[in-house]
Amino acid sequence: MSETASNPLLYGFEFDADGHAKRLTWEDVKSGPAERPGVYRWLHLDRLSPEVRDWLTETSGIDEVIDESLLQEDTRPRCLRHGPGLLINLRGVNLNEGSEPEDMIAIRMWMTSGVVVSLRAFHIKAAQDLREEIMAGEVPRSTGEIITFIAARLTDRIEPVVAELDAQADDFEDELLAPGASLPKTALANFRRKVLALRRYIIPQREALAHLAREGEGLLSQGDILYLREIADRVTRIGEELDSIRERSLVLQEQVIEERSERMNQRLFVLAIISAVFLPLGFVTGLFGVNLGGMPGAGDPLAFTFLCTAMLVVTGGLLFLFRKMRWL
User: Mapping DSSP to helix (H, G, I), strand (E, B) and coil, where does residue 171 land?
Assistant: First the structure.
């Protein structure tokens, strides 16, 4: 079954204790509760489907508090123990065509010992990976393994995106080290926006995974708990790397501002020197241009030559003075 918006049930499987997997259709699911005795299930649903909403609220047998949480428009990563199960919200990078990876998309899950109900609004490759594993004969031995598999694959796809941001920060630093180099005005701003967008969800995701490992007693095996702790540690390292990239971007931004300020100061300094040179010259030419009687040299044909020579001497003297004062 392909993952399209027209299918309320995107992927559905039912497993027994012998390791057999049975594919489910929406017809198999919609008429009954989420759990069935003697088997465990994974139901991956389209959150935007009205049929899914009706099934969750009327037929699934899942508490209405959990239904509301699963159907919320916007969520942050978290894990909440409620009655017999766990409500788990996680985020993954958006690798869909035409999307930006930092626009992280949510997968909401309700997990008990008998079922994992997962909902998404946009295609999530981690769920597709699990489907392909099952179709290849790798059947998860419990609902806990379903959760840990999805969490691991979400993390697997976050790490390359963060590594690419780190490499981009290196490129920015190399560019700024080159003499006379500059960055486009919006380059660093867009870069920092990407980093902050990822960090917004990575930090709470770390807490959600750590909470899942703590609260999963009775639902998760010891192996699943250890695996989740390892995944939480990886997400912690990702968060620390994002913090480092964010700090580097701030330093780069400050460096860009300083270089722009330095260039502006140099230009203002040149203008100040030019003004200092031409200010006395302008005063002399203005004084001799008043056209009043008694102006010295008015009848002397060499007076203009003497005036120009004097102005050249004044200019040379000012330049010598500025150099001696180390202004040039």
Answer: helix
Number of compact structural domains in the chain: 2
pLDDT tens for 61-90 read 999 999 999 998 888 899 999 888 999 999
pLDDT greater than 80 at residue 219 = yes
Alpha-carbon separation of residue 41 from 112, 120, 136, 159, 178 (angstroms) = 10, 17, 17, 29, 58
Q: Identify whether residues 234 and 321 lie together within a single domain.
A: no
Residues 240 and 158 in one domain: yes
Are 35 and 97 found together in one domain?
Answer: yes
User: Can you say whether the dihedral through the CA atoms of 161, 159, 235, 246 is positive or negative?
Assistant: negative
Q: Would residue 3 count as lying in a domain?
A: no
Q: Are residues 210 and 304 in the same domain?
A: no
Whether residue 299 is found in the same domain as residue 203? no
Domain of residue 304, residue span: 294-328
| Pair 186, 327 in one domain | no
For 118-165, give the DSSP string: EEESS--HHHHHHHHHHHTT---SSHHHHHHHHHHHHHHHHHHHHHHH
User: Which residues, 6 or more positions from 29, have their beta carbon under 8 angstroms from its beta carbon?
Assistant: 9, 12, 43, 55
What beta strand segments (E) does 163-286 contain? none
The reply to whether 300 and 189 lie within a common domain is no
Q: What is the pTM of this model?
A: 0.77
Tokens of 279: 């200010």
- Residue 275 falls within a domain, yes or no? no
Query: What three-state secondary structure class fits 288?
Result: coil
d(CA 268, CA 131): 65
Q: Which two structure tokens, joined as six digits, stand for 225?
A: 């708990």
Residue 208 has pLDDT above 90, yes or no: yes
**Token reading at 253:** 């931004």
- Structural domain contains residue 1: no
Cα separation values, 175 from 162, 179, 217, Å: 20, 9, 51
Helix (H, G, I), strand (E, B) or coil at 327: coil
Confidence of residue 1 (pLDDT cuts 50, 70, 90): very low
